[in-house]
Design a protein that fits this description.
By secondary structure, this protein is α/β, with parallel strands linked by helices. It folds into 3 domains: 2-121, NAD(P)-binding Rossmann-like Domain (Rossmann fold); 126-130 and 227-346, NAD(P)-binding Rossmann-like Domain (Rossmann fold, 3-Layer(aba) Sandwich); 351-445, Alpha-Beta Plaits, CATH 3.30.70.1450. The protein is built from 14 helices and 22 strands. The protein has a 6-stranded parallel beta sheet with strand order 3-2-1-4-5-6, sandwiched between helices. Helix 8 links the parallel strand 12 and strand 13. Helix 1 (10-20) crosses helix 13 (348-359), helix 6 (123-136) crosses helix 8 (239-247) and helix 6 (123-136) packs across helix 13 (348-359). Residues 1-121, 229-346 form the RCK N-terminal domain. Keywords: Ion transport, NAD, Potassium, Potassium transport, Transport. Pfam families: TrkA_C, TrkA_N. This is Trk system potassium uptake protein TrkA.
Length: 446
């Protein structure tokens, strides 16, 4: 597959790194020779030093033979224009990164399609949805729903109160347990567990289950006494903050603390009346105490500084906040955030890359989620007629090492999978895999 990425910024560079190991024909295009030089020395890809909106530049990149043209520069207008030009020059499919929510409305999809912009991605909106999922349940690190919630993936950290510490998985009830442990994150290592593996203190454990059994998982994880989130304090009045308040359930009350007075004025116009906007420094302990941090169950740090967000979450934890969420755009800081026990980490690059990666898969993949801490991905495949995965029970199908089936959805109902399960045509199968292995799994489902 020939893929042209226009924009060697944070998202484009991260996407190029992910795809360069997939034996794809990757061309990275940017008008900054310096940016291209840094990445071409480390990755197996071709670079083109031209503006993404240059017709001659796109011709030089070979856009006429491109299967996918991805425009992810920081400039929305440039991305849209680049996609229009790429389509006219022969690119089969285009994707543009945007920052205007209005463009995503279903009524505009056909309009943009006729212009040559086939798909739109709004990383801030995707990040906001992840934040809301994270704070709705204070004891969960990561949460993902499949087929409208028929099957759930959740990750939670094991504390001293967990009932399942140091118990080999094969002793937990065998095929009768109402969950499947698909992965364990231990320090810097991600483990796809076997029956003789056991869960240790401070492991982050990823479960697949159905909604009915979430309270049971909360109990065995020792999290029953953690307070449910009713009040959220957000530090930084970014676009993500605005979207997050709009997606919050009605029972959660939000406050935004923003240091820029003019931005505060703008925020009062953008957010609902129930959201309180406070002009001040979210690092000011006295201000936080005055605004009720002691009665706040969740603290979300969304400033432009990863360091500030991490430190602010640490301070909030020391003041008794149960759940913290930090936007960490510097990838090098993510492992540090985990070692410091920051709750949920949000990274727009990972989120955007997951959604774009989904678009380049040949199989019918409904969902792809990058698990920030675990260097792993979860994908929801729809099984096609006569697919190889239907030919034998799961234990005999020969999935590659580093991949495991977390569950399936059949006729709208979530089901856990054992080695004897026989997967059928039209099942939605949830697969957990290390690294970016999803491409290798396509042959099982096509």
């Amino acid at each position: 597959m020939k893929i042209i990425i226009a924009g060697a910024g944070a998202v484009g560079t991260h996407l190029a790194k992910l795809l360069s190991g997939e034996k794809q024909d990757i061309i990275l295009m940017d008008e900054s020779e310096e940016k291209l030089g840094k990445i071409s020395n480390n990755l197996d890809l071709m670079t083109v030093n031209h503006s993404p909106t240059s017709i001659n530049g796109q011709k030089a990149a070979g856009v006429a033979g491109a299967d996918l043209f991805i425009a992810v520069t920081p400039d929305e207008s440039q991305n849209m224009t680049a996609c229009m030009i790429a389509t006219r020059l022969g690119a089969k499919k285009t994707v543009a990164r945007i920052d205007n929510y209005e463009y995503l409305l279903p009524k505009h999809k056909e309009f943009f399609g006729t212009l040559g912009v086939h798909s739109l991605i709004y990383p801030e909106m995707l990040a906001a949805k992840d934040i809301v999922d994270a704070v709705k349940m204070s004891w969960i690190r990561q949460w993902w729903e499949f087929a409208g919630g028929a099957l759930i993936l959740l990750g939670t950290k094991m504390r001293e109160t967990a009932e399942i510490l140091n118990v080999p998985l094969h002793e937990m009830g065998g095929s009768n347990i109402p969950f499947h442990i698909v992965a364990i994150k231990r320090g810097a290592e991600t483990i796809i567990p076997r029956g003789d593996d056991s869960i240790r203190l401070n492991d982050i454990v990823y479960f697949t289950t159905t909604k009915k059994y979430i309270p049971y998982i909360r109990k065995i994880s020792g999290k029953e006494n953690e307070a449910d989130v009713r009040n959220v304090m957000i530090m930084g009045g970014s676009r993500i903050a605005v979207r997050a308040t709009q997606y919050m359930p009605n029972y959660i009350h939000c406050k935004i603390i923003e240091s820029n007075p003019s931005r505060c004025t703008r925020l009062t116009e953008l957010v609902d009346d129930g959201v309180m906007v406070i002009n001040g420094d979210g690092r000011d302990v006295e201000l936080l105490l005055e605004e009720g941090i002691k009665n706040t169950e969740a603290f979300v740090a969304l400033t432009e500084s990863s360091e500030t967000n991490i430190l602010a979450c640490l301070a909030a934890k020391r003041m008794g906040v149960t759940k913290t969420v930090a936007e960490v755009e510097n990838v090098d800081y993510i492992s540090m955030a985990e070692s410091l026990d920051i709750g949920t980490v949000i990274n727009k690059k990972f989120i955007a890359a997951s959604h774009i990666y989904q678009m380049m898969l040949d199989a019918d993949v409904t969902n792809v989620k990058c698990l920030t801490f675990a260097n792993a991905d979860v994908a929801e495949f729809t099984v096609k007629p006569n697919a190889y995965i239907t030919k034998a029970p799961v234990k005999d199908i020969g999935l590659p090492k580093g991949a495991t089936i977390g569950g399936l959805i059949r006729n709208g109902e979530g089901m856990l999978v054992t080695g004897n399960t026989l997967i059928k045509e039209n099942d939605h199968v949830v697969v957990f895999c290390l690294g970016m292995m999803i491409k290798k799994l396509e042959k099982f489902f096509n």
